[in-house]
Design a protein that fits this description.
By secondary structure, this protein is an alpha+beta fold. It has three helices and eight strands; from the N terminus they run αααββββββββ.
């Protein structure tokens, strides 16, 4: 019953509140669409705006996460082999579990050097030196 919560690293209460927030937003969208279907000049943009705002809200919670191998891990006291750039701020990890879709990217940095990353949009939690991207 709680597999979904465990996979998404979210507590029951937080999940409950988020889900009911979506229920109320969708009920509003449903109501204005029903009225709009009968009276086309009313609520001409309300439902689409509501849906777009819900989408932005869902995406807003996610960080831009770039992952790449730490080429200087031998000099790191913790021997952490992975670099995570979370919204541009660097963190080091010994291990990473990636539980969201990702894609590869290539980026030329200021020095002219080319860097290869895995790009994910999500949230990171930590279990010691292990990063969990979800």
């Amino acid at each position: 019953m709680f597999k979904h919560l465990k996979e998404d690293h979210i507590g029951y209460c937080r999940h409950f509140c988020q889900a009911w927030g979506y229920v109320f937003r969708l009920a509003y969208c449903q109501t204005v669409l029903a009225i709009h279907s009968v009276m086309p000049d009313m609520f001409t943009r309300s439902a689409s705006t509501c849906i777009a705002n819900m989408f932005r809200f869902m995406r807003r919670k996610k960080d831009r996460i770039l992952i790449r191998f730490n080429t200087t891990h031998a000099t790191d006291p913790g021997k952490r082999k992975w670099r995570l750039l979370i919204n541009g701020k660097e963190y080091l990890a010994e291990e990473i579990d990636i539980l969201v879709p990702g894609q590869t990217t290539v980026e030329k940095i200021a020095s002219g050097e080319v860097k290869y990353h895995i790009l994910c949009n999500g949230t990171v939690s930590w279990d010691g030196n292990k990063a969990i991207v979800y």
